[in-house]
Amino acid sequence: MPSNDSSYDREAVRRVLDRAAAEGRSSLTAPEGRLVVEAYGIATPGEGLAGSADEAVALAERIGLPVVLKIVSPDILHKTEAGGVLVGLRSAEEVASGYDTILANARAYKADATIVGVQVQQQLDSGHEVIVGTVTDPTFGKVVAFGLGGVLVEVLKDVTFRLAPTDTETALSMIDGIAAAEILRGVRGAEPANREVLADLVVRLSNLVTDFPELAEVDLNPVLATAAGATAVDVRILVDPAAAVQPERFTDEEILASMNRIMRPASVAVIGASAEVGKIGNSVMKNLVNGGYQGEIYPINPKASEILDRKAFRSITDVPGPVDVAVFAIPAKFVPQALAEVGAKGVAGAILIPSGFGETGNHELQAEVVKVAREHGVRILGPNIYGYYYTPENLSATFCTPYDVKGGVALSSQSGGIGMAILGFSRAARMGVSAIVGVGNKADIDEDDLLTFFESDPNTQLIAMHLEDLKDGRSFADTARRVSKTKPVVVLKAGRTDQGAKAASSHTGALAGNDKVYDDILRTNGVIRAPGLNDLLEYARGIPLLPTPQGENVVIITGAGGSGVLLSDACVDNKLTLMEIPPDLDEAFRKFIPPFGAAGNPVDITGGEPPSTYRNTIALGLSDPRIHSLILGYWHTIVTPPMVFAELVVDVVEEFRAKGIHKPVVASLAGDVEVEEASEHLYRHGIVAYPYTTEKPVAVLGAKYRWARSAGLLGGQPDGR
C-alpha cells in the first residue's frame, strides 16, 4: 500500500525512473540517486556534477573544501574498486588533478564505460557510519536493513532486517537491535547518534521502495549519523521492473473455503486406488478405511470393479455424489488429465502424492498441473508428499500408517523424510496431534494456507512447521503475526548456512543473502524458531503443557550444585531472567534447607535431603506470587529415589493447580536409568521433564516465554519490537 505522506515528491522520483527506463538502464547514477532519496526527505551532502576539471574546481570552492570526488557512470557501480573515489581534496590544485586521475582510473577499469561526469561532494568528517538499505528479497519482498556502515558492515555484518514499509517503533527496534547499538549511544565521550532522526530515515526509505517497487535495491552506505541529523553520503540504486511483481495470493475467505473441505471432507476419492498390496493406491485406501474415516470413500481405477469391498469407478466423473478431496496415487505424467476430471467434478483439493515434478527438474509438468488446477478452482497439496492426517475426522489420507492419538498440535513438513520423523516421534511420545501435513513442492498450498486454517481450527492449539523455504514469506509473516497472538507458531527453517557469497550488486544485497533475514523477520512476527528437528518436536510437545507465565521471574531449585550452574547457563542462553531473591524470600527458603545449602538463586537444597525438602521448597516457589516459573534440578539419591521425586512433584503441583495457581514447572533429572521412568511420569502429568540433560527443559521453557512475550502476555513489549 503506498504511503500517504504528502511531503514526498513522487513526481520527481517518477521522472528519474522514467528516464532510466527509457534509456534501458538498470541502475541510477549517483546524482539521480541523490534526487530520488531527497524527494523523500533524506538528506545528502552538498554536491554537484562536473564535466571538466575547471567545473570541478568551481563546484568545490562553492560547496566548501575539503571535498570528495566520485566517478559518475551507469556502468561503474562499485566506484571504489574502479579507483573512482578520491577523498580529502583540500585545494583547487588537488581537485583539478583529482578530476583527471578519476577519469583515467575509470577508463582503465572499464574502457567502454559511459562517463557522465565527476561528482563533487562536500566531505563530512564527523558522525557514526551506518548503513540503511533495502533489497527485494526473493522470499519476503521488500526488506529494509540497518547496521553499522562503511567498511565495518563488510567485516562485522552487524545488520538487522524488517519488512518494508516500517513504522517508527519498528525502525527504533532495528537501531537498538544491532549488537553494536551501544556505540551509537555514544561511548567514551563520543557524540551519540540521534535515534529518532535515524528511525525517520529508515521509515522514509522503506516508504520510498513501497511506493516505487521497481526499486530493486537501494544502498545508503555510509549514512553519517550525528546528534543533530543523518546524511546519506553515498547512494546506490538498482531498478528492475520484475521487483514490482507481486505473488498470487488468495484471500483468507478463499483459503478457508477450500481448506475446510480438504481437512473435513464428507467424501474422498483415491485416484489410482489398487487392490494390490504394496502399491501406494492400496496403502492409501487401507489407511482411510482402517483409520476410521466415516465419510464416503471412492476408489478410482478403470481396471477394477471393487477395491476393499467398495465399488470402484473408471473415472471420478462417474461417482454419483459430490467429492471434496481426491488423493492421487498415479504416475506424474497422468496427473494433468486426471486433474482436469477432478476439477470438472468440483473437487476442492487434489492431494498429489506422486513425485516426478519440480523436485526432479520437471518444472513444465508442475506448471501445467497448476494451470489446470487454477482453471477449475482446485487447490493442490503437493506434489511429492506422503499425504496428510487430520485426527478429529479420523482422516489418514496417506500411504504411511494411521495415527490416532488426538490432541492440539498441528505439524507440517516440506520433506517426506522429516514427515516420517514427525510421525515416529509423535507416536513414541504419545503426543496428541490434530494434523500432520506434507507440503512437498508447494506448487499451490503452502504454510500460509495451513496457518490460516489452523488459526480457525478449534482442535489446534499449536502449529509446528518444518520448512526449507517460503513461497511467499511476506504473506506467511503477516499471517504468523496474527496467529501467534493466540496460538504458538514454531518453525524449523532448514538451510541456515550463509548464502551471502552469491554475487551481489550492493552491501545490502549481499547481507540479505544469509539466514539473518529469515531470523529477524520470523522472530519479529511472533514465530518461535527451533534450531533443530528434535527441538521442533520437543517444543511442540512441551509448550502446550506449560501454563503461560505471568512474569519473568524464574527460580531454580536443585539438589545438585553442578546442575544448578548448568541450569543457570541454560537460562542465560534462553534469555530467561533468574529472579533476584529478596531477603524475606531468602529467609523463607532457608527454613527448609540445611545450613550448608544455599538459598539465593539457584536454591541448592543439596543432594542428601529427604522428599519433604523438595516438597516444601517447591510449594514455597509455587505459593509466592513473585515467582513466575520453576526449574527443578534433581540428583538421584537413595534418600529421595527418582519415582519418589516425580510423584511428590506431581502431588504438590496438582495441589496448587486445584487452588487455581498455574505456573510453568520444568525438571532436569540426573541419575541412573530410573530417572527415565520418573521423567515420563512427570511429563504425563503436565510437567516438562527430561533425563540426562539440563538444556532441554530450559529450552522448552524459553520457547514458551518467547511466545508469551511476542503475544504481549507478560506485560512488556513483544519480543523484537
From TrEMBL:
InterPro entries, per the entry: ATP-grasp, ATP_grasp_subdomain_1, CoA-bd, Ligase_CoA_dom, NAD(P)-bd_dom_sf, Succ_CoA_lig_flav_dom, Succinyl-CoA_synth-like
Gene3D superfamilies cross-referenced by the UniProt entry: ATP-grasp fold, A domain, ATP-grasp fold, B domain, NAD(P)-binding Rossmann-like Domain, Succinyl-CoA synthetase domains
Keywords: ATP-binding, Nucleotide-binding
Record domain ATP-grasp: where: 34-229
Protein name (database record): Acyl-CoA synthetase
